[in-house]
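Figure-free illustration: sequence to structure, shown twice.
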Amino acid sequence: MKRNISQGWVKLSILSIVMLVMACSLTSNPSLAPTPNPTFTPTPTVRVPLVVTPSPKLESRCEDLSGTLEIQILVGPAEAVGLEPFAVGEIPFSVLPEGGTYRVQGGGPISYQEVLAEEWGTYTVSLEMDTTIDGQCGGDTGSEALHMTIESTGEQMLEVRADGFSGDYPWSGTSMVDLTFPLEEGSMQSGEGRAFILHLNN
């Protein structure tokens, strides 16, 4: 009976030693230990900023624009006696940037005295005027235009002498005419007995 009990204690002691050795092995070798539940860390989404390359801005043709307006006499009697309109002067103008727009400014005196002799008679012109130009240049790129108000103050005398025809045509005071020109050399507009031709410097 005692031998059986002793053998039982011996087996129990051996089993305890084996379990203790296994526990130590698991502790000293982490790779054999049970793997804890993994914790998932979300990967942050990296947003790449959208780079928009602006289209190059086309420069307005109004920029640094300048030129002259040629004034031609355009009066009924001249046509009646067979005369074509003719130039009596030029008004300089320039275009300047102003608050995101382009302003047109110009002006100057015009003085003209001439007697035109033809076979049919004479056509006399006497002209003394001060002129001013005010307006704007603008429009879509490629289709810009000049919008001008021409103010003229002074005196003008036209005398026509011909066979069977005699007439005097005085004028004094202030006249204003609104004109619009596409930005094309030689563009022409008429009003108030005169014709205006656009000449561009650039």
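We now fold a second protein in the same way, so the two outputs can be compared directly.
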Amino acid sequence: MKKDILIKLTKNFEESAHVEAGVEYWMARDIQKLLEYEEWRNFCKVIEKAKIACQNSGRSAEDHFVEVNKMVLIGSEEMREISDLALSRYACYLIAQNGDSRKASIAFAQTYFAVMKKKLGVPAARPLADFLPTITIKAKDFAEEITHFNVKKENLQGEHQITKEHEKNNRDVRQVLAKSNIYPEELPPEEDVKKLERRIKNQNEKAFQNGGELSQNIVLPHV
């Protein structure tokens, strides 16, 4: 792939990413354009294949393909609600893997979504959430709880108001972390949650065989 094309594609994919509490995600309709699918209905077929692959890998598709609705301008003043999906990096990776790699944009995406995870040592078949630091996960949960509270308290209506509130709360939580010199994107990865689960299971089995008590003092990160 030519260097100028590679630079352009990298820029396009990075500028399309959203970040909340250190967690990246992409909108499906943006990925549709980046992967050069002309029709949404055809792209949805690829998404469905990616969802099946996600389930077959032992992950919940609902955690990586989150359905949302948003308002778009279709005329000078007319707005229309359309469906969209918030996609995790893992979801984007699976979508790219189920695309036609003969297209330069899809071949690039297959590498982009796999290689970028390597900075945290995350295997291509594993979701980023399994390696996120606990403080990042808790910060994200805290921002979401504030949003839920304010949506009810202020009776916020519509996707625009709720999204605006959610983005504000994520910025506020990030500022709190920054005051303590904590920047989610700079934190090292946590221990692989699957390895941690296996170790605790082995410890409990040994304790049970020896007539001891099960491990109660280790708390797994909630993802």
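Summary for the second example: The chain has three domains: 3-128, 135-186, 191-223.
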